[in-house]
Structure formats: C-alpha cells, structure tokens
Specification:
three-stranded mixed sheet, alpha/beta, CBS-domain
Length: 144
C-alpha cells in the first residue's frame, strides 16, 4: 500500500493570504491540529499548527500580551503567512505506507502529518495516523 491509497484529499487548506480568523474557523469546524498552506498554484508553503494559531490569537502580534484573545475584527486583519512553519514532511504518492508510519513513530523527530506532493511540490493530500488506522480498519473489515 502507498501514500496515494490512503491520503485525505478533501481536508482543509489555506493560502498565505488567508486570515487568522479563517484559520481559526477551519481549525474549529474541521477539528484538525494543522492546516497546509499553499500558494495560488497549489504548492505547499508550509503548515499552520494549532499552537501557532493560539499564540497569535492570544498575543495579537504583540510580544507582551495580556493573555486575552484578539477580537474577531482583528483576527480578520492578520494574514497567516507570518505564522506558517516550513518544517513539514512531504512524500511522493508512491511512498510506501510503512515508511510513513516510521516517520510518525520516529523517536527523535516524529511528525504528526505527512503531505503527499506531486513532482512540482503541489499538495495532493494529507496523511495523519488516523488515515493509516482507517486504512487498516477497512482492510480488517474486508477480511471478515
């Protein structure tokens, strides 16, 4: 089994022009811990993680904050481009799922999601441990 077989192609995505408010709304409605950020051509710029969102919402872009969430209007003015982290793991669609599981279980540098990319670095899908477990569950159900 390979990455293309189990990736989630319908998950949320943001662009660098998306706002903090849009990101928070996606995080809440989709129940995800990280959101890929892509450019207009679909190439991955990085990942927006829930910790970065929370930090930005609490600080409001000001290092010394009072620990109070920004108001909604302010969140709509802050672009996510400044919050994007570039430390994501990208794999090709033909990457064996076993190699992806190894990345999740790496004791020194574990990842919580893997982005499946084409040869032009465009996002095709996302794999989290949940997708791996879903694929195993479906396989077990077929065997019954």
């Amino acid at each position: 089994m390979v990455a293309a077989n189990i990736m989630d192609t319908e998950g949320p995505r943001l662009t660098g022009e998306s706002t903090l408010g849009e990101a928070v709304a996606l995080l809440v409605t989709e129940g995800v811990a990280r959101i890929p950020v892509v450019d207009s051509g679909g190439r991955v710029l990085g990942v927006l993680k829930e910790a970065a969102l929370l930090d930005a919402a609490l600080r409001g872009g000001v290092p010394a904050s009072k620990g109070v969430l920004m108001d909604a209007a302010s969140m709509e003015r802050v672009k996510v481009s400044g919050l994007v982290q570039r430390d994501f793991k990208g794999v090709a669609p033909e990457t064996p799922v076993a190699a992806i599981v190894e990345a999740f279980l790496d004791k020194d540098d574990p990842v919580s999601a893997v982005f499946v990319l084409d040869d032009k670095e465009r996002l095709l899908g996302v794999i989290t441990p949940v997708e791996v477990l879903k694929s195993q569950w479906k396989w077990m159900e077929k065997k019954r």
